[in-house]
Structures are given as structure tokens and as C-alpha cells.
Specification:
The complex is a heterodimer of chains A (104) and B (375). Chain A has 3 helices and 6 strands. Chain A is of the alpha+beta class. In chain A, α1 (36-44) runs antiparallel to α2. Chain B starts with a helix and ends in a 24-residue tail after the last helix. Chain B is α/β, with parallel strands linked by helices and 375 residues long. Chain B has helices at 3-15, 48-61, 79-89, 105-113, 128-135, 140-153, 172-182, 209-216, 219-222, 225-228, 237-240, 278-284, 286-293, 315-321, 329-339, 344-351; strands spanning 20-24, 65-69, 93-98, 118-122, 158-163, 185-189, 251-254, 259-261, 271-272. Classes of the chains: A alpha+beta (104), B alpha/beta (375).
Chain lengths: 104, 375
Amino acid sequence: MSRLYVARNPRVATRGLGDETMIMSGRDSTLFTLNQTATILWQSADGKTPLDEIVGKRICAEFEVEPAEALEDAETLARELARHEILQISEEPIPNQNFAGESR
Amino acid sequence: MSDLLEEMTVKALGLNIPLSVQLDLTYRCNERCLHCYLDHNDKGEMTTAEIKHLLHEMAEAGVFILTLSGGEIFVRKDFFEILEYARRRLTFCVRLKTNAILIREREAARIRELGVESVQISIYSHRPEVHDAITLVPGSLKRSLDAIRFLKSQGLRVIIANVLMMQNLADYPGVRALAAELGVECTLDPTITPMMDGDRSVLSLGIAGPALRQVLRDSTLVGEVDEFCATPAKPRESELESTPCSAGHTTCYVSPYGDVFPCVQFPLPTGNVRRQRFADIWRHSDRMNEVRSIRMKDLTTCSSCTHAGSCTRCPGLAFMEGNMRGPSSQDCEKSFARTGIPSANMLAKKRGDPNLVQIRTLPVPALDSRTGALG
């Protein structure tokens, strides 16, 4: 099975609020909030670390969750966030992007 | 406000976080609007470095929504440097308020590139002879409308802000039709704000009496008129325990000189970011905490008013009238125009009752920190 890579979209607005993260979509001003687990995923989404590694090293290390189930949940969340252009997902590492969305 | 934003606001309130801040970058302006409450002379604006430092402090304090306003923001030569810093480096959700007459294709593209959430533009009329007579700048309507088209062509969210006064009273339907034609949102505000130095002469431009009543009973604006203008229900206990508005609770305002106020319409100085950390002012200012301590039940006159549960009372306007716990006559006017029922404040004035507004005549210093009243 191929690995999935996730990267934050630099165009969104974001701020922590307690143990959650607020995110405003740059596309349509929709507001999202991420819970503690999703916040870890968001913070770790550097485009270089595969999702299964984020789940194994960051999420399973912090919460008592079964790895396969956690990975499935993380993939669902990542695809949902990608649908709103908050995260980018790819089966290849994602290069750093500048603000206009151009690779560098 | 969306349900989620409301939920986040409640959470921010519990955590004492300033979720939303308006920062005026300058009071200088390239228009001279008749009703403007600002002194446009530069009395020592914050430098680029000072503003960047402040933005860092705000981000650390948890500010998410940053509204950049003025004056006219685009007269600052470093505007895009500040905007880029706020968006790219500090990931604020940025909203702009502008007259837009300096926005051309290039600026619109840059605003889009930097991911600005929305741009609010003041439009007073769909007719140049009315709009330009308010801004005192010939050709300003055309330039603002051109800018709206440039911004829209970039896919940006644009909001027309239509301040209503006697000069443009008849034109709001035209402005709304124009907004629909341009595919942008439109807000209408019949509130004229006194000058920040307390001068109330501009209030004479505002609409009142039958004209205000006509606006507040326009179904194209308010929806179900009978419902909007219904006799107010007696305020519930929970309403009397609630806070009057978000000023000082989850929002505040910073002037171009670094002064921090509960709101742009609430000129109670609570500190200055050139001398104190933003978070320290927010958390520890006695005046900010005093504003925070006020509940509806503490309001002199208003807590016993029949309109208490539905009034749009602005604590800042009340403060400028003499007492932040007192009534705001402009909002009394609105409640009366809406329902035909006089407010407790109006009845008291009619009876000649002494009113705390008379605190203005007391021999107190220029600003009394206990009452927040203007001397």
C-alpha cells in the first residue's frame, strides 16, 4: 500500500484556541476547528513525514488508540481537509510551497 | 455569526482570549467624509517595526481575526509589508476596511495572493453626486466601484458598508441594487459615531424620528416587519446576567498610536502597546477589567427598560454620552423607532429625572477611572 503525505496549505488562517485549532479556509472563508488529535496531525503535516509515521509517532504515542484504526481515522480526516483545501495530500512527498501555492 | 464562530467566541470568552482585534494603521485619509469621527492629522503613527512587534504579541495572545482599518490603510507605504507579515508569518485571518480608491488591478491581485478573508468598502450612494458629496472627493465613487470590480475579478469576498445619514437616506435601495449587480454583500448602518475627542456635532447628520422608523420598518432590510418591530418581551434573568457586548471580552481596538481601547467605538484608554505588552493590557488593565465586569443587570436605567432584552445598546456610545453603565440615546432612538415604545431613558428624560448622564457636569478629572465617564 502506498504511503500518504500531508502538507498544510499556507493560504489558510490558523490559530490555537485552548487545545483546539481554528482554521479559516482561504478558498471560501469557511471556519473549521480541529480537536486535539486533529491538531497534532495539522501541526505535523510538513509534506515530508508520511501520515502513518505521524500517526505512529505522534498520535499513538499520545493517545491510547489502536494504530490501524487511528491511521484510518487520520486518512479520512486528511482527505476531508484536503477537500476544503486546508491540507494537501499526495502519495509523494510534497515540496515546501510559498504563499502563492508555487513549489520552491 | 456562524454557529462555529459563536462556539469559538464562547470558548475564547472563557479563556479570556481576544479573538478579534481591529488595528487602525493610520488616521490619515484620502477622503474627507462628512460624518467621520477621526482627526486625520498624523500624531505619531506606529512604525513598521512597531506594528510587526505588536502583531507578534497579538498572535501570542491568541488573536485570530485581525481587521486592518483606518483612516485609509492604503495611504501607508508599508501596507503590503504589514499585510504580508500578518498573513504569511503570523497566519491571521485578515479583514480589510478601506475606501478602496487606491486599489487597482495590481493591488487587488496582491490582496488575493495574500489570502485576505474579506474587503469591506464604504459606499454611500449609487449616485456620484451623492457619494462624492459625502467623501468630498470628486470621482471617488467611480474609483471605489472600479476597485470592487478588480477585487471581485480576483474572487475576493467584498462587502459594501453603507452608512446611512440624512445626505444619502433615499439611496440605500440603490446601493443594495448596485451590490446585487456587482455580486457583493451589503451592510447598512444608521449609526453616526461622535468624534473620538467627544465632539458630538457630527450626530446632527444622523437619521432620526420618522426617517429612522421608515428604515427600520423596511421589510427588504429587516425581513418580517411585525416580528422585528414587535413589543419587546420582558428580559429573562439570563439576559440580565449576560454581558452587554463583545467589547473588551473577546474583541478590542488598537489605534495607530498604540492605544488600546475595548472597541473602536469605545474610546476608554486601557493602555499603550508602546509601553506595555498587548497581553498585559488585555489581561490586567483595570479599565479593561471594569468593562468586563459589567452585566446587563448593572446598567443604570437600561436594566429596568422594557427594551433590555432586544436593544442594540452600544456601551461605547453610552460611554461617550457620559457613562458606560448608562443608556445610549442613539440606541434608545432605534428601539423607539422600531417598536413605538419609548425606552426607560426617554421616559426619564421626559419626566426630568436626574440621569447619570449628568455625571458630565461633576467636577471630575478628564477621565474618571471608576465610572469611565468623560469629564
